[in-house]
């Protein structure tokens, strides 16, 4: 399912000096895994449909979420899950 030019294996999930260590393996999150598998299948089947994000879309996204502070290291609250 993965493009042979971009090998995605558990070995690629090495630790980064800046990224936090994953507490749970990705396989524990089935909905995320399935979504990523479908996305990878679509990209592999129709790579010509991949388009770069243009500056107008980027500016729109930034205007919507640019002021939101997110701490990726803090756990979610129970009511957020």
Write the layout of secondary structure elements.
Blueprint: H1 30-45, H2 55-65
What does this structure look like?
33% of the residues lie in helices and 0% in strands. The protein is an all-alpha fold. The chain is flat and about 40 Å long. The model is unreliable at 1-15 (pLDDT under 50).
Helix content: 25-40%
Q: What is the mean pLDDT?
A: 74
DSSP strand tally: 0
General shape = flat
**Helix vs. strand class:** mainly alpha
- Distance between the first and last residues' Cα: 30 Å
What summary fits the major beta sheet?
Answer: none
What count of structural domains?
1
Distinctive features:
about 80 residues; mainly alpha; flat
What's the gist of this structure?
With 81 residues, this protein is an all-alpha fold. The chain has one domain (1-17, 25-67).
């Amino acid at each position: 399912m993965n493009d042979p030019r971009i090998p995605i294996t558990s070995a690629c999930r090495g630790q980064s000096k800046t990224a936090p260590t994953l507490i749970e393996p990705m396989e524990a999150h089935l909905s995320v895994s399935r979504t990523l598998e479908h996305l990878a299948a679509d990209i592999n089947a129709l790579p010509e449909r991949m388009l770069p994000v243009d500056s107008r879309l980027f500016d729109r996204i930034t205007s919507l979420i640019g002021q939101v502070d997110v701490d990726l290291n803090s756990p979610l609250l129970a009511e957020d899950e």
